[in-house]
Amino acid sequence: MSQPTERSDQERSPSTSAEEPASGTAAAALPSETRPAVTTESNPMDGGQWRPVRPEELLRKNAVVDESPSELPDNPKLIRQRRQELEVHLRSCPTDQDAFRELAAIYRKEDRPHEAKRVLTEAVRIFPEDMSLLWELEEAKLARSLQQYREVSDLAARLKTSEVEREMKRSREDWAYRRIEVCNARLARDPSLRHLRLVLAEAYIDSDQHDKAINEIDELVQYDEFSPQAYLLKGKCLLSLGQDVQAMAALRAAGLRRAVVGPLPVRFAALKLLCETAERLGLDLTLEHYRRHLAIVQQDIAKLSAAAKKKHA
């Protein structure tokens, strides 16, 4: 897959912040307490067949720096003034690392990841040994790619033209490529970051590289903390490859295994796919078995949802 080109900043229109949640059914890299609620329909914002993991999910887990852009003042006039001061300051003092970080944080707060990327690219050039700056630059690249994807998705929802469809395909490929690029770089620097293999597998799936996705997934099925999500992704890959029998075995491991009980959203997604596949193949008795388990999971999800609403009432 060739590296997609990025649009100029002049072409960028205001969009949803890259820090906002994305919907979906399987949050591969999220801890259980932050996984999103289950949804049953795909969404163009989900990046294809699987929800792309957000930049903050991908990178802020095991973060190497502790920065808090939210601590910046909320006064737009003061923020703009400080940004201008930092831009001028860095022209005369280009080795002020703290100024680079603060300026990049301001651009992120302003939802301008393209400018944050520009600032951090220069910072990494000056301080090539600083891994925390490289980490921030990778964040900015992901945020910029996701921002463009959302902009084009919004446009595609309003306009149905061949040009918009081509741009949608390009932005989807770019979002997948950026995740692949960053995950591979992170894993090369630190192979212990196993959770990134799930993120990487999702990106490979979004770019229709199912064989590569399965290779990443097979590295994770031996780890209980990752195996339910890994088996779910593997089942989806195998379905896409037309290997229904193998896919159902993987989906059963994600949705029905008793030794390692998966999170409810994962079990729901796996059982739903099992029902769809059994119905398509005409396996009536098997279908009824899967439907019973799916109904139990749906009841558990409803109970948790009701308890959460009661808690916040």
Can you put this structure into words, describing what you see?
Keywords: TPR repeat. The protein is mainly α. It has 2 domains: 49-219, Alpha Horseshoe (Serine Threonine Protein Phosphatase 5, Tetratricopeptide repeat); 235-306. The protein is 64% helix and 0% strand. The longest helix has 29 residues, at 284-312. The radius of gyration is 21 Å and the shape is elongated. The relative contact order is 0.10.
Give the overall shape, derived from the CA principal axes.
elongated
Find the CATH topology of the largest domain: Serine Threonine Protein Phosphatase 5, Tetratricopeptide repeat
Cα end-to-end separation:
49 Å
Strand runs, count: 0
Uncertain regions: pLDDT < 50 for 5+ in a row? 1-70
CATH class of the largest domain: Mainly Alpha
**Continuous helix count:** 12
Describe the structure in brief:
The protein contains twelve helices and no strands.
What is the topological layout?
Elements (H helix, E strand, L loop, with lengths): L54 H5 L16 H17 L4 H13 L3 H14 L4 H28 L3 H28 L5 H12 L3 H9 L8 H14 L3 H12 L8 H18 L2 H29 L1
Helix pairs in contact: 2-3, 3-4, 4-5, 5-6, 6-7, 7-8, 7-9, 8-9, 9-10, 9-11, 10-11, 11-12
InterPro entries: TPR-like_helical_dom_sf (IPR011990), TPR_rpt (IPR019734)
Protein name: Tetratricopeptide repeat protein
Keywords: TPR repeat
Tags for this entry?
elongated; mainly alpha; Serine Threonine Protein Phosphatase 5, Tetratricopeptide repeat; disordered N terminus; 2 domains; 313 residues
